[in-house]
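Schema walk-through. Below, the input block comes first and the output block second. Nothing else is stored per chain. Lengths vary across the set, and this one has 349 residues.
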Amino acid sequence: MADREQKKPRVLSGMRSTGKLHLGNYVGALDNWVKLQDSYECFFFVADWHALTTDYADTSSIKQNTMEVLLDWLAAGLDPERCTMFIQSHVPQHAELHLLLSMITPLGWLERVPTYKEQRENIKEKDLGTYGFLGYPVLQSADILIYKADYVPVGEDQVPHVELTREIARRFNMFYAGKRVVFPEPQPLLTPTPKLPGTDGRKMSKSYGNTIMLTDPEAAVRAKLKTMVTDPARVRRSDPGNPDVCPVGDLHKIFSGRETLAKVDAGCRTAGIGCIECKSWAANALVSVLAPMQERRRKYEENPKLAWDVIEAGGARASKICDATMNEVRQSMGLTKEYEPAPDAARAK
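--- output ---
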């Protein structure tokens, strides 16, 4: 993997350990991560502690869910020779920095985070009135700052989290850093997030039951596509449609080649093709993307220790960087184990 000496900008990002990933996860983040490996020094972690902020009541599946995420990462093309992959809870320095940063983060900063109110309003079936849920943006900040990441790849909706991290870094440096900067302020690395609908036309989400999983076999992909909603204006086969308002058209824009896109656009608008034919072409495109991933995944499914070795090596690499950062943090805050007499002026006070 690239050495820091080569001065590649450092990127940090993570995914919650929620189990097998779907196409929305791939299009929204994972595909971009794979591309970032060659231009950045990349650190990607499975955020099992973050999963506990909403799913703390039952942790029986968390380890298996973590493994499923890792397998999908490897299947999609994340390469342990070109990036560092690890599990958040295997690098406990994250928790220490989270604790220290929580001491200086104003309550109002957390209450104004857009996703805090949004999730409290939308996730009614769980009790989110916990300290952990309110404080998860501070844990996110610790995740980023402990690696002194230059960039955090995010969509527009996550920019406020990066801005909060910048504010926390600024506040820490003001209190403790003196003339030097302990934490550089990370920048958001805005990533394109194409519109990827689920089979019911809404945003693809496990909670909606409308997903196409990265592990779905070809038969399942084709069956799900057959039931996918289309342009409501096409009531009959002879009715012309508009691929720009059709969820299947959105899939084509992401996964199909130019030739197929041209056939879809012309055929739909003139009723030259039916929705069944259009869906079969979309299924072809999806299968061509998913089949190679599933082949790579099988190698690790047959020998899970290979995947676990990747995560252990990544955790060891991450821990070394975190140790260096935390030594600097403790030194700045006066929390080192060694006794250092205070300067005369300080004793006099």
